[in-house]
């Protein structure tokens, strides 16, 4: 039996004056994760055009363990540290992909 892939979906609300800095940080982090994490199958980033400051990120991981460890990687820790001062809300959900 093969491991079930996991999708980590995260919604962020960012202070309006820090949207550009968050955008730069999230794209840099996504590039680093895709480059450095062999268990990551891809990252997508969306920005709500009708609600400035709302972002959705999704990352597809090979299995439960990789998804659970995503925020403990060097890239994950660096991203969290960089954006913590201007994130008003962060909600993380994990989804099974069948």
Automatic annotation (TrEMBL):
One protein family per Pfam: ABM
GO molecular function: monooxygenase activity
Limits of the ABM domain: 6-95
Highest taxon listed in the record's lineage: Bacteria
Keywords: Monooxygenase, Oxidoreductase
Listed name of the protein: Quinol monooxygenase YgiN
Organism encoding this protein: Methylopila capsulata
């Amino acid at each position: 039996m093969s491991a079930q892939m996991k999708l980590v979906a995260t919604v962020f609300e960012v202070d309006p004056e820090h949207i550009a800095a968050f955008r730069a940080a999230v794209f840099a982090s996504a590039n680093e994760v895709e480059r450095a994490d062999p268990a990551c199958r891809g990252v997508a980033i969306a920005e709500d055009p009708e609600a400035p400051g709302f972002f959705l990120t999704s990352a597809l991981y090979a299995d439960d363990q990789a998804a659970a460890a995503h925020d403990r990687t060097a890239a994950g820790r660096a991203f969290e540290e960089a954006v913590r001062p201007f994130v008003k809300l962060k909600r993380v959900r994990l989804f099974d992909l069948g």
